[in-house]
Design a protein that fits this description.
This protein is α/β, with parallel strands linked by helices. The protein is built from 11 helices and 8 strands. The protein is globular and about 65 Å long. It binds thiamine diphosphate and magnesium ion. The site of magnesium ion (MG) has 7 residues, from strand 3.
Length: about 350
């Protein structure tokens, strides 16, 4: 998504592609079909093109991770989601699926405190969004999202763990959205003190300070880097501006897949077919559930199964000396007849 642009540049996408994409030029990665950062590069840089639907890349990237595993490649898939996007249904479906499949997948949850004008506290009843990982039994990290070195070290560790077969990992990067949602949004709803707090923690300024204090960068080196980047941006902007617009007749091509003219979809069996298809690729069926029928219901009768953090009746009875082993003296009161009649009457009246 848009938040990927920085990562795209680090992965090797030239700035001219970003410029041309925004100008919808013919030489852009999508040949002018899209005016956003919705583009990828599967063949060379192994970047899956993102789309606008928040969360949908989670199951997609889980699929990529699983495909890599089937093909015997030691890849790790990675994508991003925002604090707002982490409340979509597909976030949960996708992460659950990744967890149960132990997919080599790292998800970075950028908690920048705002989703449009909604503060994170008004849409998630959690202090740490990393806690969402608990629901899927997967590990998580919390990292200062404005600390470049900490983010790199955490992401590297997570990728190494995923590659080693530990399954998916969620990283919550705590940060702040400095600008509005888009150009139309002056973000006047952001409290001034909050903005001031975070502006003093500008990640680029902090990283520069770190590099200077570690003597990895000095004023001369900084200027050299800035001059190099400026020259590249000017060159790529000119290239983008001079790129033609797509011809009108191109509008109807590339919209639907037309078979071999578009692209061939063929399996690339890099491992023996028998090894990656059932029954070898299947999981053995389980017919019995441990503990089934052995738990106690709160009324003392057999409960079908005892789940997680609800104390079984036997345990709670023994922790309470007075009630130990006793059955309740009176059966629980039935619903008062009057109330039942009244509710029946009001149902009738509504009809
Ligand atoms: C499924 C879905 N619902 C709604 C939207 C519209 N939308 C685009 S961005 C956005 C807010 C996202 O907030 P957050 O996930 O916190 O990301 P941020 O903009 O802070 O990086 C919304 C609701 C969408 N793109 N996809
Ligand atoms: Mg956000």
């Amino acid at each position: 998504m848009i938040r990927n642009i920085g990562a795209l540049l680090v992965k090797g996408v030239p700035p001219r592609d970003v410029f041309m994409q925004h100008m919808a030029k013919y030489d852009s990665p999508t040949k002018g079909k899209d005016g956003t950062s919705h583009f990828g590069d599967l063949d060379n840089l192994h970047i899956v093109s993102p789309i606008s639907m928040l969360g949908d890349l989670i199951p997609v990237m889980t699929g990529v991770a699983m495909a890599g595993r089937y093909l015997g490649q030691k890849i790790v898939a990675m994508t991003w989601i925002g604090d707002g996007g982490s409340s979509t249904g597909v976030f949960h479906e996708g992460l659950n699926f990744a967890a149960v499949q132990k997919a080599p997948f790292v998800l970075i949850l950028e908690n920048n405190l705002w989703a449009y004008s909604t503060p994170v506290k008004r849409q998630v009843p959690l202090e740490n969004l990393a806690d969402r990982a608990k629901a899927y039994g997967i590990p998580s990290y919390i990292v200062d999202g404005n600390d470049v070195v900490a983010v790199y070290a955490t992401a590297k560790e997570a990728v190494d763990r995923a590659r080693a077969g530990e399954g998916p990992i969620l990283i919550e990067a705590k940060s702040f959205r400095r600008m509005g949602h888009a150009q139309h949004d002056p973000a006047e709803y952001v409290p001034k003190e909050m903005r001031a707090h975070w502006e003093a923690r500008d990640p680029i300024a902090l990283y520069e300070k770190f590099l200077m204090s570690e003597k990895l960068l000095d004023a001369k080196g900084k200027k050299e880097i800035e001059d190099k980047i400026d020259a590249l941006l000017v060159k790529d902007r000119e290239f983008a501006e001079n790129s033609p617009m797509p011809p009108a007749e191109f509008a109807e091509t590339g919209v639907y897949c037309t078979g071999d003219d578009c692209h061939k979809i063929l399996p690339k069996w890099e491992r023996p077919v028998a090894e990656v298809t059932p029954p070898k690729s299947s999981v053995a069926a389980v017919w019995t559930v441990e503990g089934f029928g052995a738990g106690k219901g709160s009324g003392g009768a057999n409960a079908p199964i005892h789940f997680g953090d609800t104390e079984p009746a036997a345990a709670s009875a023994s922790s309470d000396g007075n009630r130990a082993g006793k059955t309740p003296a009176k059966p629980p009161a039935k619903k008062p007849v009057k109330a039942a009649v009244a509710s029946g009457a009001s149902r009738k009246a509504r009809r």
